[in-house]
Amino acid sequence: MPDRRQPGAAPARWAVICFLLILVISNASCRDTPHMEGCLRIGLPEEPLTMNIFLATDGNTRNVLRQIYQPLYEHHPETLEIVPWLAAALPTYDREKKSYTLTLRAARWSDGRELTSNDVAFTARLIQDFKLPVLSSRWQEVERIDTPDPATVIFYLKKPIATFLTHTLQVPIVPAHQWGPIVESALRTEKPLAALLNHEIEAPIGSGPFILRKWTRGDFLHFERNNHFFASGQTIGGRRLGPHVNGLLFKIYGTTDVAMLALRRGEIDMFWQGIQPGYIDILRREPHIRVYTSPKSALYYMGMNLRRPPFDDVHLRRAVAILIDKDFIVERLLQGRGAKMFSIVPPGNEKWCNTSLPLYADGQSREERIRTAHAMLSRAGYSWDRPPVDAGGDVVPGEGFRSPDGNLVAPFTILTPPADYDPARAISGTIIQEWLREVGMPASARPMEFSALIDQIKNRHDFEAFILGYGRLSLDPSYLGAFFDTKNDKPRGWNMSGYHSETFDQLAARADKELDPVARREIILEMQRIIIEDVPYLPLYVPDLIEAVRTDRFDGWVSMLDGIGNRWSFNEIRPVE
To answer: What value does the mean pLDDT take over residues 188-196?
Structure first.
């Protein structure tokens, strides 16, 4: 029997079916989407992992939970100084008793119950008793906690801690009446810590400006304004706080391309992730989109292994520093969207960054750098079969690079993450390889899978040099001691370069317990100077944080170090009138 269907009938029918399916799915999605009026719509690159604050290990989860759980103190967006948040004032310190006393503001949890000193003490004891990863190290020097009344907490320390305010007292406080039964249940199990971390929190009770209303996994999270938020209508840090929006709607976008399209269409008001410079031009053509560029508290650097040749010689490390052109890296690789780094502390951290450090030929031309490095290495006893600067003073390709003992310097490798993980670091390795080869150094760059790279560097110490980064450093530079203290030179330790300096170790110990902020700053400036002169790490660059928001519905974003997605922004954003 002949087929009576008309040519093209089947494809047309399938097109109609597909259209109807999209319409059905779209309508279903619209039915589930909460009411948008007065709601700030935020795109997230990934879904939060949990509502359990103690399991929040990734940036997305922490960002979302920061709207619910609050710390005692916060950094001011302009000065970066510590500002009382849940606390009513800075704590008073009793040197004789080694104790801090703080008073709480009048505050309530989102279920209406009073937030008291018992909640603060409960949170601290939970962290200590369960030895919570990351957090417990901040509380290990706290010996005892007293709560003489509902608004007063006294912390007795084993010894003075300089970072007590900036680290210890910035942990999020949880309600004892919600977490108490969870703790008791976890303690009855064979593995209390695992039980605590794996506990699902369906309806978190918080003290922040928003509270979770609905979470449709894989699609959105709807946060309502917390009517019990303690800071509503208050002035903190000289800033009048809201929140002034009815709620937050977090939507999940798998790729930046899709999120940028949603932003341009007005489907979201902000995408909460840094975006690549390539998006800037197209976004700036949109009349209702504003692009923010903020400095980051980050560090991208070249690390060298001081445990073995050739980087066990400070003269060679300084010569490498001279040969690396940071202007080229920032202008060409980062497209001008970043800054050169001359200290381990990023330049955006103006409170702590030492700006009077050796610059290692900054601003010199390629030939000037080669001449300077050649002269430095020659004075240190290095030689060449063919020097990179000939008898006439001209720069030529160096060959046969020999160490002071007369032996050829063995080939060495600069390890980097792969280009699909971070193209800037991978390409930096290749460029630095070529710059070092110009003077005859037998360098080669090798990208490798990231976890294998970390294992080789941090666990096995089997490397000559590497390029890595820290995407988010704390504002208090206590990490200096962690990175370079001799005691941290061990497998899985933070001192990956194997740097040893008795002077530096003594300064790090003093910085840990110096309570006078002026005296502590001087110590930390000196620690930066020692590191840059000894060059176990060579700071390279810090990329800008580029973010984009719509301006036709809300305004009032607060720009600070590490961008606009901060606690202050979500308390100051207002609808556009």
So the answer is: 97
With the C-alpha atoms ordered 304, 309, 315, 320, is the resulting torsion angle positive or negative?
negative
What does the alpha-carbon distance between residue 404 and residue 421 come to, in Å, rounded to a whole number? 38
Query: In the structure, how many helices (H) and strands (E) does the chain have?
Result: 17, 25
Element (H, E) at 125: helix 117-130
pLDDT(6) > 50 = no
Q: Would you place residue 133 in the very low, low, confident or very high pLDDT band (cuts 50, 70, 90)?
A: confident
CB atoms within 10 A of CB 482: 14
How many CB atoms sit inside 10 A of residue 551's CB? 14
pTM of the model: 0.85
What is the DSSP pairing of strand 39-44 with strand 247-252? parallel
Instruction: Say whether 224 sits in a helix, a strand or coil.
Output: strand
Q: What's the pLDDT score for residue 9?
A: 43
User: Does the pLDDT value for residue 31 go beyond 80?
Assistant: no
Whole-angstrom distance, CA of residue 209 vs CA of residue 70 = 9
Q: Dump the DSSP string for 396-453.
A: ---EEEE-TTSSBPPPEEEEE--TTT-HHHHHHHHHHHHHHHTTT--EEEEE--HHHH
Three-state DSSP at 149 gives strand
Residue range 21-39: mean pLDDT, rounded: 54
Tell me what pLDDT residue 33 has.
56
Residue 569 CA from chain centroid, whole number: 18
Amino acid at residue number 94:
D
CA 246 to each of CA 58, 213, 454: distance values in angstroms, whole numbers, following the listed order = 26, 12, 44
User: What residues contact residue 558 under an 8 Å CB cut-off, 6+ apart?
Assistant: 77, 564, 566, 568, 569, 572
The 3-state DSSP class for residue 167 equals coil
Whether omega before 243 lies within 30 degrees of 0, making that bond cis, reads yes
Q: What is the mean pLDDT of residues 458-464?
A: 97
Q: How far apart are the C-alpha atoms of 362 and 340, rounded to whole Å?
A: 10
3-state secondary structure of 485: coil
Over pLDDT 90: what percentage of the chain?
89
